[in-house]
Specification:
single chain; 372 residues; alpha+beta; Lambda Exonuclease, Chain A; 2 domains; 6-stranded antiparallel β-sheet; 8 helices; 27% strand; globular; YqaJ viral recombinase domain-containing protein; YqaJ_viral_recombinase; Restrct_endonuc-II-like; PDDEXK-like_dom_sf
C-alpha cells in the first residue's frame, strides 16, 4: 500500500490509496536536525473521504495551525463532532475548519514557524454574531472584547457577570438590554463600516476567524478582530466600532480621540494575533475617524497579570468546585468589582490612548488625512 505524507504547520495528512484520513499531530521544528519532533499526538479521525478520483491539488499556509486539503470527493462528506484535548481536567477545543487567507493555488511548503506566523490556531465559524453558537465558541476562554471588564474598568456588577458566564458556562449569555442593543447596532453596521474603511484607505481587508494565543500556556486567551490588514510580517488588524451613543446612534459623531476603554481589547488582539499595529475605525452615520494603535508590550505585561489572576484564581477554581459539586465553595471565588491594579491599568490606558494618532476624518464623503 502506497502512502503520501504531507506535513504542514501542525497537521500530518496521511493518504492511502482509495481513502484519505486526517490525523492531527502537534510538533516543534528543529532546524539543526531538519526534522519535526512530535510533542503531542491527538488521536482520532476528524474526516473520512472516499476519493472517487485523483487528488487535484493541495493548499496550505504556514501562518495557521490548521490547513486544508482540497480534492474531489463525494457530496456525502461526513464531518465528525468536535474533539477535546483535556489538560488538567480542562478542555481545549479543536476544529478542522480551514484557516483564512488560503489561496487555492498556493504551494505546499514545510518551513520553520517564526514568531509571527507559528501556530495561530484560527478557528473559522460561520455562526452569526450574538447567536448561541457564537457565544459557545468563546465560552471556554477569555476573549479580547471582555478584557476591559475582566480588568474592572466598569462600575457595577459587570466583572461578576463575566465571571458567572465563564464559570457556569450557560448555553446563552444574558446581556442587559442596553448593551445588547449596542452590540446589535455594531453587528448591523459592521459590513458597511468595513466597506467605507476600504473606500477611504484603499486597503484590502481580509476576514479573520476566532484566534487562540499561539503559546500553550496562554491558550485561554482568544480574539476575533474585524479584519486583517496586510501580510503577517509588518501587517496589522482592523477593529471597527459603531458607537450607539446612549440609544441615539443616528446623531452620533465620530470620535476625535480614542476612548481609553478600548485599549485593552485592541492590545489584546495585537498580542493574540502577534501583529504590530491596529487601525481603530469609528463609524457613525455622520462620518468616521481612523486611529493608529501600536502594540505596547509593557502595557500588555501589566494587564496580562490582572487577566491571568482573574482567570486562574477566580474562574478556574470556581469551575473545579462546581465539578466537585461544591457550589458554595465556587461562590467563594467571586471576584471583586475591581482589581488592586485597576486604577493603574486605567491610567496607562488613558496615557496610551492619548498617544494614538488620528489618521483621518471623513464627513459627508469628504476625507481629510492628518500627517503627524
Amino acid at each position: 500500500m502506497t502512502k503520501l505524507i504531507v506535513i504542514s504547520s501542525s497537521i500530518k495528512i496521511v493518504l492511502f490509496s482509495g481513502q484519505a484520513q486526517f490525523l492531527f499531530y502537534f510538533f516543534s521544528f528543529q532546524p539543526e536536525k531538519s526534522s519535526l519532533a512530535t510533542q503531542v499526538t491527538f488521536s482520532g479521525l476528524f474526516y473520512q473521504i472516499n476519493l472517487l478520483s485523483t487528488i487535484q491539488f493541495f493548499s496550505a499556509m504556514s501562518n495557521a495551525c490548521l490547513s486544508r486539503l482540497q480534492c474531489s470527493y463525494p457530496k456525502t462528506l461526513k464531518s465528525l463532532p468536535w474533539r477535546r484535548k483535556c489538560i488538567g481536567g480542562f478542555c481545549r477545543m479543536f476544529s478542522t475548519s480551514a484557516a483564512p487567507l488560503i489561496s487555492p493555488t498556493a504551494p505546499l511548503t514545510v518551513s520553520s514557524p517564526s514568531s509571527s506566523v507559528s501556530a495561530k490556531c484560527v478557528v473559522q465559524s460561520d455562526a452569526p454574531q450574538l447567536s448561541d453558537e457564537w457565544f459557545a465558541l468563546r465560552r471556554d476562554r477569555l476573549t479580547a472584547s471582555t478584557f476591559s471588564t475582566a480588568l474592572g474598568f466598569w462600575k457595577g456588577t459587570r466583572r461578576f457577570e463575566l465571571w458567572h458566564d465563564k464559570v457556569y458556562a450557560s448555553e446563552t449569555q444574558f446581556v442587559e438590554v442596553a448593551r445588547r442593543n449596542a452590540m446589535e447596532w455594531g453587528v448591523l453596521n459592521e459590513a458597511a463600516a468595513i466597506d467605507q474603511y476600504r473606500s477611504i484607505t484603499g486597503c484590502e481587508v481580509n476576514s479573520s476567524g476566532f484566534a487562540i494565543h499561539s503559546a500553550d500556556q496562554f491558550d485561554w486567551l482568544g480574539a476575533s478582530p474585524d479584519g486583517l490588514l496586510g501580510c503577517f510580517h509588518g501587517g496589522g488588524i482592523l477593529e471597527v466600532k459603531c458607537p450607539y451613543n446612549k440609544g441615539k446612534p443616528e446623531i452620533a459623531l465620530p470620535w476625535s480621540t480614542m476612548p481609553f476603554y478600548h485599549m485593552p481589547q485592541v492590545q489584546g488582539q495585537l498580542e493574540v494575533m502577534d501583529r504590530g499595529w491596529a487601525d481603530l475605525y469609528c463609524w457613525t452615520p455622520n462620518g468616521s475617524t481612523i486611529f493608529r494603535v501600536h502594540r505596547d508590550c509593557n502595557y500588555w505585561k501589566l494587564i496580562h497579570g490582572i487577566l491571568q489572576e482573574f482567570w486562574w484564581e477566580n474562574v478556574i477554581p470556581a469551575r473545579e468546585a462546581l465539578l466537585a459539586r461544591e457550589e458554595e465553595e465556587a461562590k467563594s471565588y467571586w471576584p471583586a468589582s475591581t482589581h488592586k491594579q485597576t486604577g493603574l491599568a486605567i491610567s496607562r490606558s488613558i496615557k496610551l490612548a492619548g498617544k494614538c494618532k488620528l489618521l483621518c476624518r471623513e464627513t459627508s464623503g469628504h476625507v481629510e488625512f492628518y500627517h503627524n
